[in-house]
Amino acid sequence: MRIKVATHSGFCFGVKRAINIAEKNLADPRYKNKIYSLGAIIHNPQVVDDLSKKGLKVIKDISSAKKGAVIISSHGAPIETIEKIKAMGLKLIDASCPFVKYAHDIVKRLKREGYRVLIIGDKKHPEVKALLSLAGKGGNKAKIGVVSQTTQNKGNYIKEVLDILKEDFKEVRVFNTICNDTSRRQTLARRLLKDRDVVIVVGGRNSANTKRLWQICKESGASSFHIETPGELKKSYFRGKSRAGIVSGASTPDSMVKKVAQKIKNLTKEG
Asked: What residue ranges define each of the domains in the chain, with the CATH number in brackets?
């Protein structure tokens, strides 16, 4: 079995930054056993589990936090949540990805200038929830500003924008808020697909950018499988195949990608 890993894999800049912020604060004696993350700090269950073992308490509701500090995940948080954290007297540690913050700044400016803000993305995703809280309701229906969730498929975003352009309006402003890393991974995944007969997509099942990569692979017609860990791989995935490709989501560590590659070698050696 010939195995090829996409040339851009492992953690993206924003994920590395969030993990470094978490680990730095977990090592701070002031916050020992008193540091919380509102939801998963990144969308990779294995990495979040490792951080939990170091003392990070993952909570669903900010009311569960006691004295100490709260880390805002790489996806950002609604302004109402941030205000509540401050009102509770908790230390606020912002690990939001800079690309996400860039989208925040655009939405705030559009709202300030009276635009009705349209956000293309997964409504239930924490990043989109944060953007919606900044956009608010209302705005001039004739003046439209459009932004995207940072992990959207660029092709899908363009299709949505073209549909919006069919509506009745006087002015529309469209911003490309898809992060560079997401675009690059999608481009490299398409390139990898050209000479692979099976592709393994590695990343959290709750990871939006990983799901986009898998969608791209499936739409190409290639035999593709989305896994989180090497233990999910099956011999049947590689039966009759000779060229395997591996792509990873932005919150998947390099070490996991290497383990997957080794597991594929072991499985295919066994025949």
From this structure: 2-10+181-269 (3.40.1010.20), 13-96 (3.40.50.11270), 99-178 (3.40.1010.20)
